């Protein structure tokens, strides 16, 4: 007696979906500042008596940052001002004396040698006034420099001074980083670099902020590949007026290409892996009422569908449901009409690299 025939496995089928989409490159990278951090240091030395913003605070250009005890610089300014005043008085006397001696000299009542002495004294007094005024201005500048102000808008990324400590001239006590705009530094694989040009639009998302999206422009493409990763460093400039993006965040970017290409897509659930790890789909052969596995190469994800890069001609009938129970040559039966070839909604593109 022959064994009973195997009961057909119920399945649903559908067709490959043919769509037209723009080429794109999907990459991940890190948020950075397009400018180096701005170091801020005192131009004079002394004991710090006040410090304003802390790390992470936003400051505007000209905002107060810190102050050194100004007492010594005030005293120096007072002394320089007094010396300038004395020099001006001495110049006035010397000028009057020179004017009288010049009159006597021109009336031939004074020898030339004596006249030259008065003239030299007057010129020396003028130089002393100029020097005293320069010293006064320098003292005023040093007093002004005892207070430190932000040279640019940005965030305090580093603060290395506290009240009571001594600040040295030229040693940075703050660092300011600009966050509008920011740059996304990504590595574009050598297989995709031909698709990327300066000026192209990039859609940027942050995994830590899944509800936010940003738009940027490709600003720089490195001409040399990293010898270790074989990727080309590419910088995407992204406006960040609300300062949501912060340096160090992980970012993902989709750089839109210029060409429109023909694609074949299938629902993600139709694609399986065989015991060897290869990606497969099950193709239905109606004349045999059987299905057979066919290896395919998957590409980009488009919403709930995945692009098929190779392995199919596009005319095959694919198993859309029930494929988990199938093997090569399984006898099957259709439980309903052929399912549509995927959703009709606009596709959202992401890259899946295998």
From TrEMBL:
Limits of the CusB-like beta-barrel domain: 184-257
Gene3D superfamilies noted in UniProt: 2.40.30.170, 2.40.420.20, 2.40.50.100, Helix hairpin bin (1.10.287.470)
GO cellular component: efflux pump complex
Domain Multidrug resistance protein MdtA-like barrel-sandwich hybrid: 42-177
Domain of life: Bacteria
Single GO MF descriptor: efflux transmembrane transporter activity
Disordered: annotated span: 335-354
First and last residue of the signal peptide: none
InterPro entries: Beta-barrel_RND_2 (IPR058792), MdtA-like_BSH (IPR058625), RND_pump_MFP (IPR006143)
Pfam families: Beta-barrel_RND_2 (PF25954), BSH_RND (PF25917)
Stored PANTHER family: MULTIDRUG RESISTANCE PROTEIN MDTA
NCBIfam families in UniProt: RND_mfp
Family: Belongs to the membrane fusion protein (MFP) (TC 8.A.1) family.
Name listed for the protein in its UniProt record: Hemolysin secretion protein D
């Amino acid at each position: 007696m022959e064994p009973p025939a195997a009961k057909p496995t119920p399945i649903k089928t559908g067709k490959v979906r043919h769509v037209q989409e723009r080429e794109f490159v999907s990459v991940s990278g890190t948020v950075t500042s397009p400018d180096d951090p701005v170091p801020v240091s005192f131009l004079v030395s002394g004991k710090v008596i006040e410090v304003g913003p802390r790390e992470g605070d936003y400051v505007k250009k000209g905002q107060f940052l810190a102050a050194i005890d100004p007492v010594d610089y005030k005293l120096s300014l007072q002394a320089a001002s007094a010396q300038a005043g004395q020099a001006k008085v001495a110049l006035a006397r010397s000028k009057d004396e020179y004017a009288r001696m010049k009159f006597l000299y021109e009336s031939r009542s004074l020898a030339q040698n004596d006249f030259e002495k008065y003239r030299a004294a007057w010129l020396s007094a003028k130089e002393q006034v100029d020097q005293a005024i320069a010293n006064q201005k320098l003292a005023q500048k040093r007093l002004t420099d005892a207070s430190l102000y932000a040279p640019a808008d940005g965030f305090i990324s580093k603060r290395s001074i506290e009240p009571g400590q001594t600040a040295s001239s030229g040693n940075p006590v703050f660092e300011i980083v600009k966050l509008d705009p920011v740059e996304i530094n990504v590595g574009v694989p050598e297989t995709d670099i031909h698709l990327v040009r300066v000026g192209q639009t990039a859609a940027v998302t942050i995994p830590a902020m899944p509800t936010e999206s940003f738009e940027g422009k490709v600003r720089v493409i490195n001409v040399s590949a990293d010898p270790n990763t074989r990727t080309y460093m590419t910088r995407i400039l992204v406006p960040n007026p609300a300062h949501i993006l912060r340096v160090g965040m992980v970012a993902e970017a989709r750089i839109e290409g210029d060409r429109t290409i023909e694609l074949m897509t299938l629902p993600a659930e139709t694609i399986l892996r065989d015991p060897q790890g290869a990606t497969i789909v099950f193709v239905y052969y109606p004349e045999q009422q059987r299905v057979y596995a066919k290896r395919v190469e998957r590409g980009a994800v488009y919403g709930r569908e995945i692009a098929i890069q190779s392995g199919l001609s596009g005319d095959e009938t694919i198993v859309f449901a029930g494929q988990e129970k199938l093997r090569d040559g399984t006898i099957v039966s259709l439980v309903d009409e052929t399912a549509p070839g995927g959703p009709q909604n606009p596709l959202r593109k992401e890259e899946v690299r295998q």
